[in-house]
Amino acid sequence: MWFACWMRMILLLLVMMALPTITHADGSIQIEYVGLDVVEEGYELNVDAEIILNPLLEQALEKGVILYFRTKFSLFEPRWYWFDKEVAVSKLRIGLRYSELTRQYQLSSRLWSQNFDTLDEALEVLSQLRGRPSPVDINYALKPGVDYTATLRMWLDLTRLPKPFQIETFGSSEWNLTSKTLQWQTRLPLSARNLYETGGL
Fold first, then answer.
1. 67: pLDDT strictly greater than 80
2. Interatomic CA distance for residues 131 and 122, integer angstroms
3. Cβ neighbour number for residue 127 with a 10 Å cutoff
4. DSSP string, 47-74
5. With contact defined as beta carbons under 8 Å apart, do 121 and 106 qualify?
6. Which residue in 9, 43, 45, 165 could disulfide with 90, CB within 3.0 to 4.6 Å?
7. Per-domain residue ranges of the chain
């Protein structure tokens, strides 16, 4: 059975290699807003972004490749004597796939899934991480009055692609879809408030 799966991946890769060559990568991820909601268990992360796929990634979806997008938010406590300590983190992975049978796009994570009739609808929801489980895991006690360093990045997780495709991604800008790593200083909010908005840093 493993041999049949491997052959299917090889054939899928050959089909992708036969697709028209794309000379310009026009996909992008732009983060526009970051916020924390105070919840009973602690904090939940909210992110607004703009995600645009280039034609190569759209073709990969249509051929059955699942695209996994990851979001990572961290809070670091500065330490003058050693590396900064990661005191809190939120990690989220969402898969985007297309079903040729139903002609629908699907977003799914460990805790939820949702279907969409168009790619634009799916990307709009993927770009707005609100109202879904995205807890911030507190690794160490958070301290009031401390200037923490916050970082956030969203990217297409190439390590989750089928092995033949991982080979194709080497040195290819069309597959390298990632936001800039945002970094800024913040103090722990005592109530829900914005951490970052476009132009606010």
1. yes
2. 15
3. 19
4. EEEEEE--HHHHHHHHTTPPEEEEEEEE
5. no
6. 45
7. 37-189
Cβ burial of 71 (10 Å; 0-12, 13-18, 19+) is buried
Quick one: which of 1, 6, 56, 49 has its CA closest to 27? 56
Q: In the block, which residue shows the tokens 């500065």?
A: 78
CA angle 177, 72, 55 (to 5 degrees): 15
What would you report as the CA-atom Rg of the chain, rounded to the nearest whole angstrom? 19
User: At residue 7, what is the residue type?
Assistant: M
Q: What is the DSSP string of 103-123?
A: TEEEEE-SS-EEEESSHHHHH
Helix (H) or strand (E) holding 9: helix 2-17
Shortest CA distance to 61 belongs to which of 4, 105, 14?
105
Residue 61: pLDDT above 80? yes
> Mind listing the pLDDT tens digit for each residue in 160-176?
887 766 666 655 677 88
CB 134 within 8 A of CB 42: no
Cα separation, 69 vs 92, in Å, equals 8
What is the pTM for the complete model shown? 0.79
For 125-164, write each residue's pLDDT tens digit: 999 988 676 888 988 888 888 899 999 999 999 888 877 6
Query: Given this model, what pLDDT does residue 12 score?
Result: 40
